[in-house]
């Protein structure tokens, strides 16, 4: 979603045989064509988001919205993308 590519095109371009097997260091090739089928955003973007679980991360929050860059969330909020979040913490969503 973030790169606006069709998942099937990503799988084919990357030469993956089984799209369900991922491992650290796996190199993916982002295709230049094949827009994401459907809406890029999973949820409407709020002006702010309140961290609801102790296991949420900047990355998981970005993924929940589908097309938000985790680094943009981090920069907007003056934190690192790997920052430990706390329940009740309010983040601005760009």
Description:
With 94 residues, the chain is an alpha+beta fold. Helix content is 24%, strand content 6%. It is built from 3 helices and 2 strands, in the order αβααβ. The protein has helices spanning 7-13, 58-65, 70-77; strands at 48-50, 90-92. Strands 1-2 form a two-stranded antiparallel ribbon. Helix 2 crosses helix 3. The mean pLDDT is 84.
Properties at a glance:
single chain; alpha+beta; two-stranded antiparallel ribbon; 3 helices; 24% helix
A few lines on this structure:
With 94 residues, the chain is of the alpha+beta class.
Mean pLDDT across residues:
84
Number of helices: 3
Order of helices and strands: HEHHE
Alpha carbon gap, first and last residue: 16 Å
SSE class:
alpha+beta
Major sheet summary line: 2 strands, antiparallel
Q: Looking at the structure, what is the overall shape?
A: elongated
The fraction of residues in strands falls at 5-15%
Annotation, overall tally of beta strands: 2
> Helix share of residues?
10-25%
Strands ordered across the widest β-sheet: 1-2
What is the alpha-carbon Rg in Å? Answer: 15 Å
Q: Segments where pLDDT lies below 50 for 5+ residues?
A: none
């Amino acid at each position: 979603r973030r790169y606006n590519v069709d998942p099937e095109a990503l799988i084919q371009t990357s030469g993956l045989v089984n799209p369900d097997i991922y491992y650290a260091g796996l190199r993916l090739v982002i295709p230049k064509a094949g827009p994401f089928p459907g809406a890029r955003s999973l949820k409407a973007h709020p002006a702010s988001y309140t961290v609801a679980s102790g296991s949420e991360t900047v990355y998981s929050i970005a993924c929940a919205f589908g097309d938000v860059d985790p680094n943009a969330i981090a920069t907007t909020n003056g934190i690192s993308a790997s920052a430990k979040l706390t329940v009740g913490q309010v983040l601005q969503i760009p």
